[in-house]
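Standup notes
- DV: blocked on the single-chain target, sequence here:
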Amino acid sequence: MSEEKMNEERLDENIVEVKEETTEETMAEESQEGKAAEPVDIEKKIAELEDRYLRKLAEFDNYRKRMARDLIEARNQVRCSTIEDFLTVYDTFSMGLAAIKTATDMATIQEGMEMVWAEFQRVLEGFDVKEIESVGKPFDANFHEAVSQEASDTVEEGSVIRQWKAGFTIGDKLLRPAVVVVSSGPAVEEESKAEEPSEG
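- DV (later): unblocked, structure below
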């Protein structure tokens, strides 16, 4: 093999070695650059997520405050609507009181009270409020609250003799139970045994 040929082969080998070294150095540099850039990207991502979280938190807080305001407003509207309906009862009652001052007989007073009662019933019906029928009805723990029991010859045992406080339902829900007295049935008379006279 000629010396020129050998020199060419050595040159080719050197070129290959230089290329390999250059490639390794380039890859190492790129790797270092990637590692250096990676924390910057993560920090940026964290900052973006934190900003997004704070924005959502602020939006939720505003939503919560808005819902609280809307709830208060809705309650106030219900109160106003309810009181407005009962103001007619107030007006009727005021007229009844004024009529009592000039009334000369009980019939006029009774008529005024009946007007107030009728107006009050009308308002309650508008709210779907109904009075629970109690007197003479069987005691029902779902609608009645018994305060005592009394013997009765006319009212069946377990039924309501009289009512102390009216009960009401609103729709299909119990608003207030009726406070009642329940019959324990006819009074049981103790049979007195006649004492036999002692023979002396």
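- Follow-up: The longest strand covers residues 144-150.
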